[in-house]
Each structure stands twice: as C-alpha cells, then as structure tokens.
Design brief:
Blueprint lengths: L3 E4 L5 H12 L3 E6 L9 E4 L5 H15 L4 E4 L14 H29 L2 E6 L3 H4 L5 H21 L4 E8 L5 H4 L3 H8 L10 H11 L11 E4 L8
Parallel strand pairs: 1-2, 1-4, 2-3, 4-5, 5-6, 6-7
Helix pairs in contact: 1-8, 2-3, 3-5
GO molecular function, one term: 3-oxoacyl-[acyl-carrier-protein] reductase (NADPH) activity
Organism: Sphaerisporangium rhizosphaerae
Pfam families: adh_short_C2
C-alpha cells in the first residue's frame, strides 16, 4: 500500500529528485513549492514554509489527497550569502526562518498525524556546511547546524512512538543553485572532494529513500553525510 509522503521544496533540485525517487518506489508523493509551477506528475501544493498557516494548509491538502502523512522530508531552503561585516540582519533572520524555523513548522505539523498512527519518518535536509563551515555563509551554516540539534532532540522525543528522525548532510551537489558558480569556483570545490566530483541530486535522493525504508527502521538521530568525503572528520 502506498505511503503518504510530503516533500517541502519539492519542485526542483534535491527536493524534486527525492520526490521522484519515492514516487518511483510506489509512494504517494505531495510536494510543496513556493514559486513557479508544480512538477509534472506529482501532487503539488503552493506553500511558503515561513508561514504556519501555509504549512497547515499544505498538510491538509496532502492528507485529503493521499491520507495521513507518514513520511516528511523537510528540504525547503534558501541562501543569502554575504560576509558577516556586510550582512544585513534580514539576510540572517530570513535564512534562519526558512531553513530552520521552517523545518520546525513542518515537523510540528507532521507529528500530529504520526503520533496518532504511532509510526512515521522525518528526514531533515542539512548540509556539510553545518559541520565544516563556509566563509560567507554564517547564516546558512547556522540554520543547517541548527537542524542537527533540532532533529536529534526530536528523535529522542518521538522514538517511543515508532517515529524516526534523521538528518542528511549533502555536500556539493549539481543543482540550479550551484550551476551559477563559474568553472574556476566549481573546480576549486571539487579539488577538495576525495571522490573528485560533485554529487548528483539522485545521490542524495537514494540515501533519503533508504532512511524512509523498512531497512532503516532502527536508525534514528543519525547525521548521514552524502558529500563524497568533503566533510570527513567533522
């Protein structure tokens, strides 16, 4: 029987790849998107994760379409990269509000149905930057590091109810966001990756598929790096 899945920020990049991977495995997948059009072949719900009301409506629509949401992937995220002395306060707070507080809103709404079902899977999409750091990304790194503490605490809260919470930490991934970097910037990054290449979005999606599968039933509170070795030792 297909499980009801909700992927935030699921209309492009890593989120879309995760949504398509889970749909191909037989799950009933809904995706949220903030702008543009919903992806073809997936149930799309317009949602800004900085709004609790939007998040509630997105879950209600997904539940009406596919039943109680059993798997949630909190993937929606933004960057506003600037060196700290030049960073305006809203560049910091907006990134935290979307990437970290947005995940809080999504996870809080998800637990309502999961606690009732006494089962569920929550996956938070963090970043290698959470542990490695990155100049010009104090806001982004803080938001992604926050997901680790948030997710591990939530794993302790929900474990007795059969709900797992895990964190995936992608490294440098080929997406629209990274395509904006010039060749020299991309080469400088891949030189530091032991596997010598960027990840594809599918590399991340397959790890998420594992974490929400029966094979990962005894994994919770884990931080899984999918970074080609970039963050080794952190």
């Amino acid at each position: 029987m297909p499980r009801s899945v909700l992927v935030t920020g699921g209309n492009r990049g890593i989120g879309l790849s995760i949504a398509r991977e889970l749909a191909a495995a037989g799950d009933a997948v809904a995706v949220t998107y903030r702008s543009g059009e919903p992806p073809e072949g997936l149930f799309g719900v317009k949602c800004d994760v900085t709004s609790s009301e939007d998040v509630d409506v997105a879950f209600s629509k997904a539940e009406a379409e596919h039943g109680p949401v059993e798997i949630v992937v909190a993937n929606a995220g933004v960057t506003r990269d600037t060196l700290l002395p030049l960073m305006k306060e809203d560049a910091f707070t907006d990134v935290i509000d979307t990437n970290l507080t947005g995940a809080y809103r999504v996870a809080k709404r998800a637990t309502r149905g999961m606690l009732r079902m006494r089962r569920g899977r929550i996956v938070l999409v963090s970043s290698v930057v959470a542990m490695l750091g990155s100049a010009g990304q104090t806001n982004y790194a803080a938001s992604k590091a926050g997901l680790i503490g948030f997710g591990r605490s939530l794993a302790r809260e929900l474990g007795s109810r059969g709900i797992t919470v895990n964190i995936v930490a992608p490294g440098f991934v080929e997406t629209d966001m990274t395509a904006a970097l010039d060749a020299d910037q991309q080469n400088a990054i891949t030189r530091n990756i032991p596997l010598g290449r960027a990840a594809t979005a599918a590399d991340i999606a397959r790890v998420v598929k594992f974490l929400v599968s029966d094979d990962a039933a005894y994994i919770t509170g884990a931080v899984i790096p999918v970074d080609g070795g970039l963050g080794m030792g952190h």
